[in-house]
Amino acid sequence: MNVRPDTPAPWRGRLVVLAGIVLVGLNLRIAVAAVSPILDVMGQDVPLTSAETGLLGTIPVLSFALFGSLAPLLARRVGLEPTMVLALLLSAAGEVLRAASGTAPAFLAWSVVALAGMGMGNVLLPPLVKRYFPDRIGPVTAAYSVALSISTAVPPLVALPLAQAAGWRWSVGVWAGVGVVAAVPWVVVVVRSVTARAHLRELVRRAPRPAASVVTTAGDGDARLVWRSHLAWAMAVTFAVNSLGTYTVFAWLPEILADAGLGTEVGGRWLAVFAILGLPASLVAPVLTARMRSPYPLVVGFVACWAAGYLGLLLAPAHGTAVWMVLLGLGPSSFPVLLALIGLRTATPALAVLLSGMVQGVGYALAGLGPLGIGLLYDATGSWTAPLLVLIGLLVVLLVAAWRACRPEVLGAAAERVPGSPTLDR
């Protein structure tokens, strides 16, 4: 197939990669979302103490932070695509092994392995989008953001019926199949012929790049550039506060609604609604982000939804609950905006993987303090008033950081010409 220099790269030349990106998105939250609904069933065979149950809720965020930070180092040595294959197979192995566990410590240990692969996948996806779809960052980010939302919303709905029908081990282990299937397109990319890889690189090379209005040049295109960048730190803080709120809601929403007199079962259903409501924004927000000089107005709108939802839970949790849940469901939608910005605000895929690792590593590490800190504050005060006020106050931090993160700058615009720059994009 001949492609004229002025012709955008066709989708069909990159469909295998697109399938791989979407399938990875479907795998990224399964290990988090598939267990909590079946803890009672699992406890009949492998009982967990209260401390172990709390640890199970903390492991995802800490694993995402730790192993997400390690992903750029591994990718620099072996390449983005092979690292993604390793991450997917690692997550699948962890899923199978924890399903076969006979003790709570073994289950927790293998959960770390499953979540390690998913934490690496979190970091690797934005630079892969940057590498293969520099002309379609918004739509492709939207596609895998929707897949990620599905991977959050579907397991809680089917995990318990599956556990009751086939046993909790099948309910936990069956999701390993998603990771194995997601690895197939990336294996194809790695082993395809030299001619096919050269053709794919040519398609990407001819794809038009979006231009930024403001450019920040840099004298060094390595990790030091990222860690010293005000833009990177602003994105990390924005990511941290947004994720902190999301994981705090996942951890405590059923308890908040139960204390309001609605019951834990009702709280569980509203938690599923909270997860599902991220789908529409995940589809639209990255596309709009790619078309806007600064997506800050989008972030302001999402933060307003966060604030209104928190205020509803604070003032009238048992009245107008559906409204508060809709608002809370839209609040975390700054997340797909940030995923798109990682590709849009970096000059090369090499810098995209470094920025992704830094933003998500720092962000998830700070976000891990949320569920624990809010729980301790609730225990100290005996009320949800102080915790909800703290969450509302943190939204101010998010707004300030996001203003800086959304500015139309490109990190390392001159990095390709600097000796010693990372070589991931070669």
Automatic annotation (TrEMBL):
Which keywords does the record carry? Membrane, Transmembrane, Transmembrane helix
List each coiled-coil range: none
InterPro entries for the chain: MFS, MFS_Cyanate_Porter, MFS_dom, MFS_trans_sf
Name the residues that span the membrane.
Answer: 57-75, 82-101, 107-125, 137-158, 170-191, 231-250, 270-289, 296-316, 322-344, 351-378, 384-403
Protein's membrane topology:
Multi-pass membrane protein
Give the superkingdom in one word.
Bacteria
Tell me where it resides.
Cell membrane
Q: May I ask which residue range the UniProt record assigns to the signal sequence? A: none
Protein name (record):
MFS transporter
- Species of origin: Cellulomonas fulva
